[in-house]
Amino acid sequence: MRYQAVCVAGTFDGIHAGHVALLERAFEVGTSVLIGLTSEAYVKQYKNNIPASSYESRHNALAKWVTAHRYTDRATIVPIDDPFEPAASDPMIDALIVSEQSRARGEALNHMRIARGLRNVSLVIVPMVQAQDNTPISTTRVREGKIDRSGRLVMPNSLRNELTMPLGVVLSPEMVHASLRLHANDVIVSVGDQTTKTLLDFGITPNLMIIDNKVNRQEFHDLRPMIVQRHFDTRKVVSGPGFISREAIDEIRRVLSAKKQVLKPYVLEIDGEEDLLALPAIIEAPIGAVVYYGQPSVAAWARFDSARRACGPEVSGVVEVIITSERKEAAKSLFAQFIK
């Protein structure tokens, strides 16, 4: 349904995917859109004085978004100091855009309008936009660094050192060959371009190959001819660096749930960085499968001296993770830190 005048309101601090959903819906159903932007006095009184950017900063960002989407001639941004204004008293407004969380406030606003002799406004309910952990996106969670503005899970700084440690056994070149011979008939996942090439050169074709066309963050295209020549099924998704995308998780889950029923080996080509995807691969792979991924140079001992420097000889190479219940739980524990 189309309305002549609609209203949408919020703090719009650091415009994220949830804000965008509200704004886009407003312009979709409204010929003209009145955007109520909470004032600094509003934030102090009604938002328990939560940390928020200045009104001017938020106004500028909102105006920039409106301009970028070519809505300038249809939008009016006004400051608001009251939770129900201007929609509670403006006779020209036909509809109010609200989220599921703010629906009750919209219903209360209509009671106020009736008491003032005004007609009801239609409530256009916009579903909450979920982050990758199935929790609604919010400015608070973005500010805390748990997710980005698109709802992607962001790796906390506290996890960086832990993830540099191998999740399985670091293999020497001789051990890699022995491992591949031993597990040739098992479900195999390779994470990383060099690791994938190592397996293919040895004559092992993984069920799932996760690559990003980079080695040590440098362009690497040695796999492209092999992928084309062997007619591997390929899907390209975005993930990383520093986050694990829902799209990547869903593809990993889909492929590995089929186990060896997959007719052709599958390449998941990452636009971004594949380093963190060993975690969901370990979580989703069946018991008895093997995940191989590249291990950058790291101290062998997982402890630190008084200066917080890692101790022990440097190790690097291919990591072998034979999937067990314990390995899965360890990976889940690490992954959970993305969403705490």
Describe this structure in words.
The structure is a single chain. The protein has 340 residues and is an alpha/beta fold. It has two domains: 3-151, Rossmann fold; 157-336, no CATH class. The chain is 34% helix and 25% strand. The protein has helices spanning 17-29, 40-46, 55-68, 103-115, 139-143, 157-163, 173-182, 193-201, 223-229, 246-257, 278-284, 325-336, and strands spanning 3-10, 30-38, 75-80, 95-99, 122-126, 153-154, 169-171, 188-191, 208-211, 214-215, 218-219, 233-239, 243-244, 266-272, 290-299, 314-322. Strands 7-16-15-8-9-14-12 form a seven-stranded mixed β-sheet, sandwiched between helices. A five-stranded parallel β-sheet has the order 3-2-1-4-5, sandwiched between helices. Helix 11 (278-284) packs across helix 12. 35% of the residues are buried.
List the helices and strands and how they pair.
Elements: E1 3-10, H1 17-29, E2 30-38, H2 40-46, H3 55-68, E3 75-80, E4 95-99, H4 103-115, E5 122-126, H5 139-143, E6 153-154, H6 157-163, E7 169-171, H7 173-182, E8 188-191, H8 193-201, E9 208-211, E10 214-215, E11 218-219, H9 223-229, E12 233-239, E13 243-244, H10 246-257, E14 266-272, H11 278-284, E15 290-299, E16 314-322, H12 325-336
Parallel strand pairs: 1-2, 1-4, 2-3, 4-5, 8-9, 8-15, 9-14, 12-14
Antiparallel strand pairs: 6-13, 7-16, 10-11, 15-16
